[in-house]
Automatic annotation (TrEMBL), chain A:
<comment type="function">
    <text>Subunit of non-clathrin- and clathrin-associated adaptor protein complex 3 (AP-3) that plays a role in protein sorting in the late-Golgi/trans-Golgi network (TGN) and/or endosomes. The AP complexes mediate both the recruitment of clathrin to membranes and the recognition of sorting signals within the cytosolic tails of transmembrane cargo molecules. AP-3 appears to be involved in the sorting of a subset of transmembrane proteins targeted to lysosomes and lysosome-related organelles.</text>
</comment>
<dbReference type="Pfam" id="PF14796">
    <property type="entry name" value="AP3B1_C"/>
</dbReference>
<keyword id="KW-0813">Transport</keyword>
<dbReference type="InterPro" id="IPR011989">
    <property type="entry name" value="ARM-like"/>
</dbReference>
<feature type="compositionally biased region" description="Low complexity">
    <location>
        <begin position="695"/>
        <end position="719"/>
    </location>
</feature>
<dbReference type="GO" id="GO:0030123">
    <property type="term" value="C:AP-3 adaptor complex"/>
</dbReference>
<feature type="domain" description="AP-3 complex subunit beta C-terminal">
    <location>
        <begin position="818"/>
        <end position="965"/>
    </location>
</feature>
<dbReference type="InterPro" id="IPR056314">
    <property type="entry name" value="AP3B1/2_C"/>
</dbReference>
<feature type="compositionally biased region" description="Acidic residues">
    <location>
        <begin position="721"/>
        <end position="734"/>
    </location>
</feature>
UniProtKB/TrEMBL annotation, chain B:
<keyword id="KW-0968">Cytoplasmic vesicle</keyword>
<dbReference type="InterPro" id="IPR036168">
    <property type="entry name" value="AP2_Mu_C_sf"/>
</dbReference>
<dbReference type="Pfam" id="PF00928">
    <property type="entry name" value="Adap_comp_sub"/>
</dbReference>
<dbReference type="GO" id="GO:0016192">
    <property type="term" value="P:vesicle-mediated transport"/>
</dbReference>
<dbReference type="InterPro" id="IPR018240">
    <property type="entry name" value="Clathrin_mu_CS"/>
</dbReference>
<dbReference type="GO" id="GO:0030131">
    <property type="term" value="C:clathrin adaptor complex"/>
</dbReference>
<dbReference type="InterPro" id="IPR028565">
    <property type="entry name" value="MHD"/>
</dbReference>
<protein>
    <recommendedName>
        <fullName>AP-3 complex subunit mu-2</fullName>
    </recommendedName>
</protein>
<keyword id="KW-0653">Protein transport</keyword>
Length: 1112, 429
């Protein structure tokens, strides 16, 4: 509101409502200066019909509130406008209402109905804002209404409204703590929420309302860990702090047997290995643990959930938000094994570049950390060097850190640095530096003499403060080895003539008194001088004079008897009662009279007892019993509402409380560890899958174990993919040759555990695939034979020129292709019938899927253009709903690659439902689909009943608009709703078209330049043959082969040309853009992959996918 | 969490207050004023002050104290970080964050604070979301608003809060699509009297100004990403991609934002672009001191060192300085004893020099301490660490954006110590 606007106001005002005075600047405060009825004009404006006038009035009122002026008498006039149509007026009325409702409770009730109406609004944002204001009005009468509104909002469809509900919980709690029980119920419900939006807010509510109910976290622990990276930054802080406390109650101390291991002679360096590679780490850990077990020690094995927390918080050290970084740092400090804590140092040092307030807090925490874990910050010593421009607060904290970091190796550099500080103009800082030198000297014996010498030199400094501080520190140092330093004491005795700072004088006197035997000649002289000036001294000095006199009387009474009596007499009439008391006490004690008691015999012992040297300690010692980063830690006092950081439990509580259902792997816990790990490892990705559906496109980052494979595409991969690539790399590296054995073993294990987890299956499948490949290459010759025979037998299906796929006997080839992975178990049967006879695929599943396939077949028969060529290769299926998330219902999907008959622009998605629960599921259908713009979905027909243990399948169509964005859907049963998302690999977004080689080349010529992407690659020796290439490309993308000029691929006897080019063609499903792929092979497996597509994004992603497929 | 907020100006007036829970009397600030009085310098007021019933957590920015009132345990950094975010937002909205600007826009300020905190817990702190809710005031908009009676509160609801990329506004449209990146590096160094480096490190940031239509997905890659020792990202950056490939992949917020800040550690050798020859002496018994300072370029890779500014806090005993600069102008404030010399550009052929005498108080003894020299400078078109952006690619949108990358090196906390060590450690330890 600049001057110009004020001018406009004036004009506007005079034109509309003449009498109102608008010339006042609403913010400068002039309006408050004069007349008493100053609010009349505002009232009039608020009553008017014009929004602009109302707005102006509200702005002025808000300005008053902002300045802290009382505007409460306007309440009736303002509250009338709560239902105003103008958004800004409404918002300002809300501001006013929230500010004054508490004072005008009756009138505030008038507004409630407006908000209640708002709570029913179809727009989620209006519902949310209504709840927000309603819950902010602190009027006790409406508590039941608020409670109801919160409960309703907690089960709202919109996560944003649920978030607002979470925010409202602490508001209601502070208004009426009696509602606690009911609120906890709501919190419990919201904690189970799976969206990132809600997570931070509900944990905040949990912390405010019921931080002691740690049991509510169990079931949500893994989910929170996995969601963490996608939660907004403020929520992250709250969650991390809460999880730190949780972990302290649930897991074992990872550093407990540190000392034991050191005893055993094996340094703990190798124990955890590098913290970068956690898998290695764990293996090593295991080996070590086994070794330790042999030595009859209880091995420490980190709970996988503990590891999960550490792993998922680590990336947050890179947050731009200092509070998040600090939260992670404290979590690592309190929870991580010693060897891993180091990672936080770098991030904390980075924060030192931030605003000085941030530095202040960080340095406080670093100071505490350096006491417990000095090594962590040693490499960053120089980052704590002090600049003359630092504020004093920061300087002193840095000094503290430097002192804590000092050890034998770096002390000389630190001392050199300290010397420059002593020359600073900031005297408080200089004093602190001298103290710091003293502490270094006490802690590190080697430099004690050097420091002492340096400090003695400081005694001749011109600045009295410096001298005084030095005296105090020297006094403490001398106490350690007085006999060696009588010359220093003499030197200091001389200082009494000049030095005026009371503390320093007192220190000198104390020193002389204490060590008067070392300076027998000087001491009485000092006392003589002091007796002279006694009356002018400060109290603290007087006390020390008395002290000195007493000590001298006891050791050297001949010379000092009279002096002592003189001093005692002076003290007797001192103004200060302390000094009078002391004098009386000393006189009784040391001067022997007839009445003096037994004590005087021991006077010498009392005064000249050997006093232990003071320990110069950091003020930050033992502060770490407060949770780091907390307000309580900073103040070193318990702040209100602080939750104690619990001690580690002696024995780990039952880890199964965190399992979300009664899962089978707890049964395995009794087995040998190796097995246990195998079983539990996929669990992570499992729960990631669980949290997956409602998350953002790049949510895969939370599956980020550092060791995960690097091949990350722009879009998220499904967790199953990452799982596989993980496995793949593993098997490639070390287990290739053991493959067969593994598979057999696996299969046996498989059949052992009756309920095999899906992940196990997937792994198994992977192994089998590997094996398939192996055997493929071995039997290359036969293959082509059987292939040709096949192609003759199959011409009914299509008159395909190319038919490249793994030969599978007996079963009709098409269904096998579309089979889900369970079919690969069958394949295994085919390959190794003897070894795994127990593998029994569920028969209903088989029959069902066969039925679907047949359906698919019939569909394709009717629609299939003769030019379309069915691709080959096994189909990958993806998890849509995990059986744990789905409460027994699991859904998988795969891209069947048959055209979707109701709409040719849609991609057919085949869904497979399995009911693993004990009760039947009813009315399975898709509902209320929320899609990205342009996407369309054709739902599958409702499945009315799915009996327990049964499976069913359905086909639905999705038009993805040629993008790999996930389609977010809602899957409903009669009782539950699940948010799910289907994400197509880019290769499924196209359908094959038939082109001749010439057509292909012509089209390719039109898609040059920007639309052409080329990538070089080297093919593995085993997969250089044409068959492998074609199979891999068509598996990766739904394309058809373009026949070459020669028909060599039909007759294997004709040798292929030296460097054949394989061409594939397709069109994207929605827009029909051409997709042309060429793989040209050369010498030594060198190949060139070219993709021509006018959709560059599709092209780029396709190149990646095919490249991956070809080189894997 | 945050109960109330008070804004206090340099002269100790509370000029704005906002309460999120029940009202806390402004008399709570008396504890703050007490602490302020005790502190010698404004920046020495402790950021956290306990009072009998509350805790005050404050930050000082632009000579305004932002004092938050807390009632129970909360991570102090949480509050501090939030307060800084508030200041950043004000700065973003009003261009400057001064008392006058806040007073002029008090309604917008209030609306902003209302949206940023709910019951003391941060709600919307992303500037893109806030701008969707509350339009920043411009002169034009103020004019239009007063004439047409329209408002600067966004009509549409904050859809950004629901989006999967909460930092980006929806429906962004530009006719010129541009993306600019500034790589700015600051050298923090302490140079000792003899000219050798005690500690030096480089702190860099990449600030971006992205004005692109729609939902662009950008990737930025470096020629030498291994150089970066420690990084922190804007939330839009995909962390995993960085871990795996050292590529920055992100959907940018609209407008200005800090993409990345990084640190090149002191372990690497840091090039120091300027050197200082100095001779500042006070003789015993004389009331005069000598001052002689020469600057020169050192490792600048052929680039000019510009905007050089030398400042030094002279000892308290110095009454005035009588100096003669070979270029630029110098000022000496006899009250604060601050000497500043605006050098400008360093010409390697004729090195800038400042020479002359300092007068001490008559009879005063020679000052113990020698001043520290703080130097500021800028070097355009160079990142001193050698960091180079390799390429910037855009996916997800069809148009071709205009891309620009600028490099700059600045002095951060660049200090030269002129004092000798006092002779404590003669023996080699």
């Amino acid at each position: 509101m600049s001057a110009s606007s004020a001018f406009n106001e004036e004009k506007m005002g005079s034109s509309s409502v003449g009498e109102a005075e608008y010339a006042y600047d609403p913010v400068s405060g002039k309006i408050f200066s004069s007349d008493y009825n100053r609010h009349d004009d505002l009232k009039e404006m608020l009553d008017s019909n014009k929004d602009s006038l109302k707005l102006e009035a509200m702005k002025r009122i808000v300005a008053m509130i902002a300045r802290g002026k009382n505007a409460s008498d306007l309440f009736p006039a303002v509250v009338k406008n709560v239902a105003c149509k103008n958004i800004e007026v409404k918002k300002l009325v809300y501001v006013y209402l929230v500010r004054y409702a508490e004072e005008q409770q009756d009138l505030a009730l008038l507004s409630i109905s407006t908000f209640q109406r708002g709570l029913k609004d179809p727009n989620q944002l209006i519902r949310a804002s209504a709840l927000r204001v309603l819950s902010s009005i602190r009027v006790t009468i409406i508590v039941p209404i608020m409670m109801l509104a919160i409960k309703e909002a907690a089960s709202d469809m919109s996560p944003y409204v649920r978030k607002t509900a979470a925010h409202a919980i602490p508001k209601l709690y502070s208004l009426d703590p009696e509602q606690k029980d009911q609120l906890i119920e709501v919190i419990e419900k919201l904690l189970a929420d799976k969206t990132t939006l809600v997570a931070g807010s509900v944990v905040m509510a949990f912390e405010e309302v019921c931080p002691e109910r740690i049991d509510l976290i169990h079931k949500n622990y893994r989910k929170l860990c996995n969601l963490l990276i996608d939660v907004e930054e403020w929520g992250q802080v709250v969650i991390i702090n809460m999880l730190t406390r949780y972990a302290r109650t649930q897991f074992l101390n990872p550093n407990l047997n540190e000392s034991l291991l050191e005893d055993g002679g094996s340094g703990d360096k190798t124990f955890y290995g590098s913290d970068e590679d956690e898998d290695d780490d764990e293996k090593e850990n295991k080996e070590k643990a086994e070794a330790a077990a042999l030595a009859k020690r209880k091995p420490y094995v980190m709970d996988p959930d503990h590891r999960l927390l550490l792993r998922n918080t680590k990336p947050l050290l890179q947050s731009r938000n200092a509070a998040v970084v600090m939260a992670v740092a404290q979590l690592y400090f309190h929870l991580a094994p010693k060897a891993e804590v180091g990672v936080i140092a770098k991030a904390l040092v980075r924060l030192l570049r931030s605003h000085s307030e941030v530095q202040f807090v960080v340095l406080q925490n670093v100071a505490t950390m350096t006491i417990r874990r000095r090594g962590m910050f040693e490499p960053y010593l120089k980052s704590f060097y002090i600049r003359s421009t630092d504020p004093t607060l920061i300087k002193i904290l840095k000094l503290e850190v430097l002192t804590n970091l000092a050890n034998e190796t770096n002390i000389s550099t630190i001392l050199r640095e300290f010397q420059t500080y002593i020359k600073s103009m900031d005297k408080d800082f200089v004093a602190a530096t001298i103290q710091a030198i003293g502490r270094c000297a006490t802690n590190i014996g080697e430099v004690r003499d050097t420091c002492l010498n340096g400090l003695v030199q400081l005694l001749s400094n011109r600045d009295e403060l410096v001298v005084a501080e030095s005296v105090v520190v020297i006094k403490k140092l001398l106490q350690m080895q007085p006999e060696k330093h009588s010359d220093i004491i003499k030197h200091m005795a001389k200082l009494t003539d000049n030095i005026q700072v009371p503390m320093a004088r007192a220190s000198i006197l104390w020193l002389i008194g204490e060590y008067c035997e070392h300076v027998p000649k000087i001491a009485p002289d000092v006392l003589r001088k002091m007796a002279k000036s006694f009356t002018y001294e400060e109290d603290i000095v007087k006390l020390q004079i008395l002290n000195l006199a007493a000590k001298l009387y006891l050791t050297n009474s001949k010379q000092t008897k009279l002096l002592t009596q003189y001093v005692l007499n002076l003290a007797k009439y001192d103004q200060n009662y302390d000094i009078r008391d002391r004098a009386r006490f000393i006189r009784q004690l040391i001067v022997p009279t007839e009445k003096s008691g037994a004590l005087s015999k021991y006077a010498k012992k009392l005064f000249l007892a050997l006093k232990p040297a003071p320990v110069l300690e950091s003020p930050f010692k033992d502060r770490d019993h407060f949770q780091l980063g907390s307000l309580s830690h900073l103040l070193n006092a318990k702040a209100g509402g602080y939750q104690e950081l619990p001690d580690w439990p002696e024995a780990a509580p039952d880890p199964s409380v965190r399992n979300v259902e009664v899962p089978e792997w707890t049964k395995c816990s009794s087995r040998e560890k190796r097995k246990e790990k195998k079983v539990e490892k996929p669990f992570y990705s499992d729960s990631e899958g669980e949290s997956g559906p409602t998350e953002s496109a790049d949510s895969e980052t939370n599956s980020a174990s550092a060791s995960d494979s690097a091949s990350d595409s722009e879009q998220s991969r499904s967790s199953s993919e990452s799982e596989e690539s993980d496995e793949g790399s593993e098997s490639e590296e070390e287990k290739e040759n053991k493959n067969k054995k593994k598979v057999v073993k696996k299969a046996v294990k498989e059949s052992e555990s009756e309920q095999s987890s899906e992940e196990e299956n997937r792994k198994l499948e992977k192994k089998i695939k590997q094996q398939e490949k192996d055997s493929e290459t071995v039997s290359d010759d036969e293959e082509s034979d059987s292939e040709s025979s096949q192609s003759t037998s199959e011409d009914s299906e299509s008159e395909a020129e190319v038919k490249k796929k793994a030969p599978v006997s007996r079963t009709p080839p098409k269904p096998v292709k579309k089979e889900k992975k369970e079919m690969s178990l069958l394949d295994l049967d085919d390959f190794e019938p003897a070894t795994s006879p127990q593998v029994t695929p569920i028969s209903t599943l088989l029959s069902n899927s066969l039925v679907t396939d047949l359906e698919g077949l019939s569909l394709s028969d009717s629609v299939l253009a003769p030019s379309t060529i069915t691709p080959s290769g096994t189909l990958k299926s993806y998890e849509l709903l995990h059986r744990i998330t789905g409460e027994g219902l699991s859904v998988e999907y795969c891209f069947g690659r048959q055209p979707f008959s109701p709409d040719a622009n849609m991609v057919a998605v085949q869904l497979q439902f399995t009911n693993n629960s004990t009760s039947e599921t009813k009315n399975l259908h898709m509902k209320d689909v929320k899609l990205q713009s342009g996407m369309r979905v054709k739902e599958f027909p409702e499945i009315e009943l799915l009996p327990a243990g049964d499976t069913a399948s359905a086909v639905m169509g999705i038009d993805f608009c040629d993008s790999t964005q996930a389609a977010n859907l809602q899957l409903c049963t009669s009782t539950r709703k699940f948010f799910v998302s289907i994400q197509p690999p880019v290769g499924e977004l196209m359908r094959p078209v038939f082109l001749t080689e010439n057509e292909f080349k012509r089209e390719q010529g039109q898609l040059m330049g920007m639309n052409e992407l080329t990538e070089k690659l080297i093919l593995d020796a085993k997969y250089r043959n044409e068959h492998a290439i074609v199979q891999r490309v068509t598996t990766a993308a739904h394309l058809s082969r373009v026949p070459c000029g020669s028909d060599n691929e039909c007759s294997p006897s004709v040798p292929p040309p030296d460097h054949p080019a394989h061409r594939f063609a397709g069109r994207t499903v929605t827009s029909g853009s051409l997709v042309l792929v060429t793989v040209a092979t050369g010498e030594e497996g060198v190949a060139q992959l070219t993709v021509n597509c006018e959709k560059m994004v599709i092209g780029t992603m396709l190149v990646k996918d095919i490249l991956l497929a070809l080189t894997q | 969490m945050i109960h109330s907020l008070f804004l206090i100006n340099a002269s100790g007036d509370i000029f704005l207050e906002k309460h999120w829970k029940s009202v806390v009397s402004r008399s709570v600030c008396d504890y703050f004023f007490e602490a302020q009085e005790r502190a010698t310098e404004p920046e020495n007021v402790p950021p956290v002050i306990p009072t009998p019933h509350h805790y005050l957590i404050s930050v000082l920015r632009h000579r305004i104290y932002f004092v938050a009132v807390i009632q129970s345990e909360v991570p102090p950094l949480f509050v501090i970080e939030f307060l800084h975010r508030v200041v950043d937002t004000f700065q973003d909205y009003f261009g400057v964050c001064t008392e006058a600007a806040i007073k002029d826009n008090v309604v917008v300020v209030y609306e902003l604070l209302e949206e940023m905190l709910d019951n003391g817990f941060p709600l919307a702190t992303e500037s893109n979301i806030l701008k969707e809710l509350i339009k920043p005031p411009t002169i034009l908009r103020t004019m239009v608003n007063t004439i047409t009676g329209s408002t600067n509160v966004g009509e549409q609801l904050p859809t950004g809060q629901l989006s999967v990329v909460p930092w980006r506004r929806t429906g962004v449209k530009y006719t010129n699509n541009e993306a600019y990146f500034d790589v700015v590096e600051e050298i923090d160094a302490i140079i000792d009297k003899s000219g050798s480096t005690i500690t030096a490190e480089i702190q860099g940031v990449i600030d971006a100004c992205v004005k692109l239509t729609g939902m662009p997905d950008l990737t930025l890659s470096f020629m030498n990403p291994r150089l970066l020792d420690d990084v922190s990202f804007h939330p839009c950056v995909r962390f995993k991609r960085w871990e795996a490939e050292r590529i920055l992949s992100f959907i940018p917020p609209d407008g200005n934002f800090r993409l990345l800040s990084y640190h090149v550690s002191s372990q690497n050798l840091v090039a120091i672009p300027v050197y200082v020859k100095h001779n500042i002496t006070f003789r015993e018994g004389s009331s005069q001191g000598r001052f002689d300072l020469t600057l020169g370029p050192k490792q600048t890779m052929g680039k000019a060192v510009e905007s050089v500014l030398v400042s030094s806090q002279l000892p308290r005993g110095v009454l005035n300085a009588n100096l003669n600069p070979s270029q630029g102008a110098y000022t000496f404030d006899p009250v604060t004893k601050l000497l500043t010399w605006d050098v400008g550009k360093i010409n390697p052929q004729k090195l800038p020099n400042l020479k002359g005498t300092m007068n001490l108080q008559a009879g005063a003894s020679k000052p113990d301490e020698n001043p520290t020299i703080n130097i500021q400078f800028k070097i355009q078109q160079m990142a001193i660490s050698g960091l180079k952006v390799n390429r910037l690619d855009m996916y997800g949108e069809k148009y071709k954006p205009f891309k620009g990358i600028k490099y700059m090196t600045k002095a951060g906390k660049f200090q030269v110590r002129t004092y000798q060590h006092f002779l404590m450690v003669q023996t080699s330890m």
